[in-house]
UniProtKB/TrEMBL annotation:
This is Aminotransferase. Keywords: Aminotransferase, Pyridoxal phosphate, Transferase. GO terms for molecular function: pyridoxal phosphate binding; transaminase activity. Residues 32-390 form the Aminotransferase class I/classII large domain. The lineage of its organism: Bacteria, Bacillati, Bacillota, Tissierellia, Tissierellales. It comes from Caloranaerobacter azorensis DSM 13643. It is an enzyme of class 2 (transferase).
């Protein structure tokens, strides 16, 4: 008994960890594992960004920066938010952090009191509930339906609001569902937030990975009232293939940003100086590599969705963004495959890993046991081979 804090003990270990750790170990033993588990682009960081990082080191620009991030980067973020999202912010509305995950954690810490409720859509990104709990809040799970595009049902959303509700999380495009909200849907959610004086945490990290010519809309761009209630979260990890550089940012009302900056100044100081200058090049430099990667993801998505829907027992919607497919396994649950009874997404994920060496994430990790998540942030060859194996298994 180590007398750990209740807070620490309230946090669950990642369900996905077990499977990914096992897949890694199998790979090390020389087994040809195909992994659909990736949560990051398989591409290298674009050359111009790499070089900006190297140049920053060589120029000796390796000291602390302002806690909220260097001026030039915050200016570039303001310009980005104006140009891409049509939202007007000034420097006092911006904080740069160690990844979007850190931005979300700072935001929650800045707004939550003990017992405050935060509405989270199910299926959810694994870290939202745990971060809400760490910040003293209470996650309130709101189921979304596949046939409603895995998006909030506005009537249900209204019903789930209590006098304890402090914030609603929107993640568009979504991990794991790929759902993208349109303007009308965001307007309805904005109205609920304004009527009840509730914050919106708008996680837009997959903004640039959006398909079929769809356009990303930030809820903060709709009007002044919702802008003041919204904390926009974005970052470099996904679109710029910069997961390891750890740069994310938040934009919000100056009072919120001030609180987040205070928190950050006493916990992590500033985000990595070198990564900040590399990110500056990312935002201001040539964007053609970004569009190249987006195109590749769209090609892979199209292929994966067609293949999955042709496999016996599996179905899926075509996700509009991010780089994941949620495959519905309802027809498989309850069946026996290769002598093993499949009662859950974890059973099915284990079968795929043990029998055909294919790693997927069981939907239970996102609160959705009728699904498995397949990432297409891997090569077309891997996607083909992995889906061939699944198809053969389920024939
Ligand atoms: N938000 C969502 C929905 C994500 O999927 C991720 C990464 O997996 C993040 C935020 C955090 O990204 P990072 O901390 O690398 O910026």
């Amino acid at each position: 008994d180590f007398k750990l804090s209740e807070k620490a003990l309230s946090i669950s270990p990642s369900v996905t960890l077990e499977i990914t750790a096992k897949a890694k170990e199998m790979k090390q033993r020389g087994i040809e594992v195909i992994s659909f588990g990736a949560g990051e682009p398989d591409f290298d960081t674009p050359k111009n960004i790499q070089e900006a990082g190297i140049k920053t080191i060589k120029e000796g620009n390796t000291r602390y920066t302002a806690s909220a991030g260097v001026l030039e980067l915050r200016e570039a973020i303001c310009q980005k938010l104006k140009k891409d999202n049509n939202i007007e912010y000034t420097l006092q509305n911006i904080i740069v952090s160690n990844g979007a995950k850190h931005s979300i954690f700072n935001a929650l810490t800045a707004i939550l009191n003990q017992g405050d409720e935060v509405i989270i859509p199910v299926p959810y990104w694994v870290s939202y509930p745990e971060m809400v709990k760490l910040a003293g809040g209470k996650p309130i799970f709101l189921e979304t339906k596949e046939e409603e595009g895995f998006k909030y049902n506005v009537e249900e959303l209204k019903k789930s609001i209590t006098d304890k509700t402090k914030a609603i999380i929107i993640n568009s495009p979504s991990n794991p569902t790929g759902a993208v909200y349109d303007r009308e849907e965001l307007e309805q959610i904005a109205k609920i937030a304004i009527d009840n004086n509730i914050f919106i945490i708008s996680d837009e990290i997959y903004e640039k990975l959006i398909y079929d010519g769809k356009k990303h809309i930030s809820i903060a761009s709709l009007n002044k009232e919702i802008k003041d209630l919204t904390i926009v979260i974005n970052g470099m990890s996904k679109a710029y293939a910069m997961t390891g550089w750890r740069i994310g940012f938040a934009a919000a009302h100056a009072e919120i940003i001030k609180a987040m900056t205070n928190i950050q100044s006493h916990t992590t100081s500033n985000p990595c100086t070198i990564s900040q200058y590399a990110s500056l090049e990312g935002l201001k430099g040539e964007q053609k590599d970004i569009e190249y990667m987006r195109n590749k993801f769209e090609e892979r998505r199209n292929y994966m969705v067609d293949r999955i829907n042709a496999i016996n027992g599996l179905t899926c919607r075509k996700p509009s963004g991010a780089f994941y497919v949620m495959a519905n396994i309802v027809q498989i649950k309850g069946k026996e495959i290769k002598g093993k009874k499949i009662n859950s997404s974890l059973d099915f994920a284990n079968l795929l890993l043990n029998d055909i060496n294919v790693a997927v994430v069981p939907g239970i990790a996102f609160g959705a046991d009728d699904y498995i998540r397949l990432s297409y942030a891997t090569s077309m060859e891997n996607i083909m081979e992995g889906l061939n194996r699944i198809e053969a298994l389920l024939k």
